[in-house]
Amino acid sequence: MAREKKRRSNGRRSPLAAAALIGAGLLITGGIYAGASAAIAATDAQTSASTELSIEDGQKLFQSNCATCHGLDLQGTDAGPSLYGVGELSVEFQLATGRMPLQMQGPQAPQKPPQFTQPQIDAMAAYVQSEAPGPTFPADEILDGEGDVAHGAELFRVNCAMCHNVSAAGGALTEGKYAPALTSTSALHIYAAMVTGPQNMPVFGDMNLSDEDKRDIISALLYQQESVSVGGFTLGNLGPVSEGLFVWIFGIGGLVAITVWITAKSN
């Protein structure tokens, strides 16, 4: 009988080779996909930021990001209030300050970096205004900061200081709520807050404060934002509590330290 010739294997393949090849292929494919997606997203973001969006674009953005809580027809749901009558001014305020979309349920919606570009915000505001009209943007004159600063400061002390602090540094309210600081708030958002009454803030209509009064308050706050503190370190402008705490810790503490040092040196 003829002997059966044994085939020689040129190399032994590892059982992990197939898994390694599959893993390498997945990594390469995933890297290419991620790079392409990032490039496309960056292009879309630049395009949307450089072009003015239409009301139809605002409707699509609203339905994708807001309708879950506020309803497809702005009627509201158990998770969010109705938007009938809020107007474009309120929508711009809530989105541009980052309060909406709401991150989590709590006593108050905190301010955070906005999740949309300004053209996207304007498009959603225009859509809400077209479907459920409400307060709109004011004339440029109201926001110019050229009003009566002294009269505006007096109106602020009478109507706003009990919550926002006389220096507009903000303050605590009940049940975990708070009045935010106004030390860097824009003129438009100051006006929007007075007109729309977000969170716990009351609405200041024309019967309470006229447009000229609102202009004076805005002028006073803008003047205060730009002014330099002549008293030096402000300690957060929180009043005698923070000032007394500073004196107690550093003043009395410094005297105690000096007394101990003198006593130790004499001994």
UniProtKB/TrEMBL annotation:
Q: Which PROSITE patterns match?
A: CYTC (PS51007), TAT (PS51318)
One Pfam assignment: Cytochrom_C
Report the protein name in the record.
Answer: Cytochrome bc1 complex cytochrome c subunit
Q: Which InterPro entries match?
A: bc1_cytC-su (IPR009152), Cyt_c-like_dom (IPR009056), Cyt_c-like_dom_sf (IPR036909), Cytochrome_c_Oxidase_Subunit (IPR050597), TAT_signal (IPR006311)
Q: How does it sit in the membrane?
A: Multi-pass membrane protein
The UniProt record lists the EC number as: 7.1.1.8
Transmembrane regions listed in the UniProt entry: 245-264
| Native source species | Microbacterium murale
State the UniProt keywords alphabetically. Answer: Cell membrane, Electron transport, Heme, Iron, Membrane, Metal-binding, Repeat, Respiratory chain, Translocase, Transmembrane, Transmembrane helix, Transport
